[in-house]
Amino acid sequence: MPRDLLRELIVPSDSRIVLFVIDGLGGMPRPETGLTELETAHTPDLDQLAARSICGLSEPVGAGIAPGSGPGHLALFGYDPIADLVGRGILSALGVDFPLAPTDVAARINFATIDASGNVVDRRAGRIGTDVNRRLVAKLRGIRVPGLEVFLETESEHRAVAIFRAGDLSDALDDTDPQRTGVPAPSIVARDLGAEPTAALLNRWIVEARATLADEHPANMVLLRGFAQRPDLGTFETRYGLNAASIAVYPMYRGLARLVGMDVLDTGKTLDELIDTLETNWTRHTFFYVHLKAADAAGEDGDFDRRVRIFEEVDSRIERFLALKPDCLVITGDHSTPALLKQHSWHPVPFLLYSPNEIPDRCAAFGERACAAGSLGVFPAQAAMQLMLAASLKLTKYGA
To answer: What digits encode the pLDDT tens for the residues 253-266?
Structure first.
């Protein structure tokens, strides 16, 4: 639906929406059982809720496309995941609340491990501890490249963010993360002639960073991706008339929330603490985005059983969400991260929408194949916000 048309249909109200994003929710069947992680998990409360809801499978970007977390979330927020694509670096910078200048270029850093030949052995350096990350960031802050200011901040574990500042930088740059092991990390390549001076300047910094980390183990290299400058996407308030809040731990997801004008709430790391924050702030906002990271990390680690346990923990907390009596509760993911693939995949994502204003479909459980039989079918994730607004009675009639 055209953005201006949707805005015209908005009806301000005090009804409340909860979007609970289980990062990397979708999976693939284990060959021995034929069941996915979600289908394997014992989830009686989620299954009962699915039977009272409308369900389907959402495609974050399009058929066959494995999305990053950025476009996956933007689609759920109702933005165009292609036209409104935002580089990971900006999300990371906003996530640590860095005061970005309009011409700054930000990039996400992965501390990584390379071998003596320069080939990437581990893209995440064994998921080093955040305390080690802080020490390495402090070490890299000592690098000086004439004509370039570099600001470095720790995110968590192997993740950090670099903000580059100079007279006239371009973000038309290719990543240095090869997204696989056994190959060297490439240098930054400019996507157009205008970006070549920026690529040359930033490559000098990477050379210095590699030399600085040479004696470290396992984090002896940096991989940069998601070079970007800050875009103007419009806020949840201007687009939907919503007083929105985010409840997320990881900086990138807090950055996503800031980018679209959400109030970023302080919270703890556990699922119970996320829900505590939701309960405490329930009367202060009309839209809540709650983010749980653990299932995605377990998928990338190839840990099928850990994902099962995470889904069972989620199931045991569903009543706390329902006790708040939201006008609309959506439970879904931003993408699939099957343990069998150890990476994001193209598989559509289970989607559940509960609202007293909806007619339940015949979905009998919350799982990939059960949701495929739901009334929503396979649909674009970008339509999720329209469904949430409608279910919470925030849209008026279109046309005479």
So the answer is: 998 999 999 999 99
